[in-house]
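Typical record is below.
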Amino acid sequence: MRAASPAPVALRAKRASKRDAVLAEAAKQFNSRGIAGTAVNDIAAELGLTRAALYYYVDDRDDLVFRTYLRSCEIAAEDLGAAYESGRDGLSRILDYVDRALDAERAPNAVLSEIPYLTGSPRAVVEKAQRRNMEALQRFVAEGISDESIRACDAALAAQTIAGLLSWAPLWPAWLGGTAQTARNFRRKVAAATRELLSDGLASDPDAAIRCPINVETFRPRAANMFDRRDAQAMKIEQIAATASQLFNKQGIDGTSLDQICDALGATKGALYHYFDDKQALVVHCYKRGFDLFETFVETAAHAGKTGIERGMIGLHLNVQAQAGGLAPLMPQPGLDALPARCRNDVTRRALAIEQRFEAFGRQGRADGSYRDCDLDTIALAGAGVFAWVPKWYSAGDARSPWQVADETMNLFIRGLRRRH
């Protein structure tokens, strides 16, 4: 029998390689612009393809999103498998996985922030793949506790904290600006800083007793007079914004429809349109509300803490409380480029100013000896991913209260994961 021609095999390999290039470019643009803000024509143009040629590799726009998200899950699964094989214990496997996930020499994966954009079977497939990866990461932590490389801790929460740290790295370069090389350098810095944080924590004294003295619910607006029309209207706008922000944080902006927001409010679209012209106007308002709260948190932390690390950890605690609870300030999302220029510039300016406040807490902590000598500036950037990730996994039915989630997260930042024998 004559051997089969190698031509079809080579053709399939070439097609698979081109599809990978399409999905990698889609991931890059989804991270920068969000799903709704990404034009298929732009992906095709970046790759030197026509729109028709791009659809040779994917069926349609929804299939492009599905395949891009599934590819991210598959790469993460490969990284977890390789880390398991190469690691000698739970902690070393986690650190190896961090290195692989933040490898600066490969294109970043799509951040899985808008899975609810998908529906039906595609959404179920991606959710199952993501759940399997989180279970594997949680096993690394649990096995580390058993083999005594990791201290006793909440393994599920530790795994989600790691996922949050890793999720933020592909997003910040779009906010910081710069070249592709700048983005690669940033990923290298995040990988090194994340390894150090997870291994040994930030505190010079890992047994430091740091407590947050403030319940974030004290920042929830209260009506001065519900019989005053302006007060009543302000409270309705606050309720709409808080509900919308909670859904946006959990499902992504493109994964959340106005119908879902109205259902959660028990209101009609007509009632929502009485206060906001359209979805974009609502998103812009939610960003303003969110950054008003973020600035209040950092200012409160500056006054409540005495040392640099106390201020940094109180700020972290307040942000985690807010995302696990109902206050839910809107976190920066993929899709920055899709915002109106005025809002985009305002959000970028305020986000960087808040990070600079946390960096200042770090400088103070180095000077007063409360922080270890580590890359606190990069951790201040990457750390925002931790509380941005909280709405993706935490729900009101969780046995842990928002305060307990914030305590455990803060403890990880203070002590790291390594067990000290």
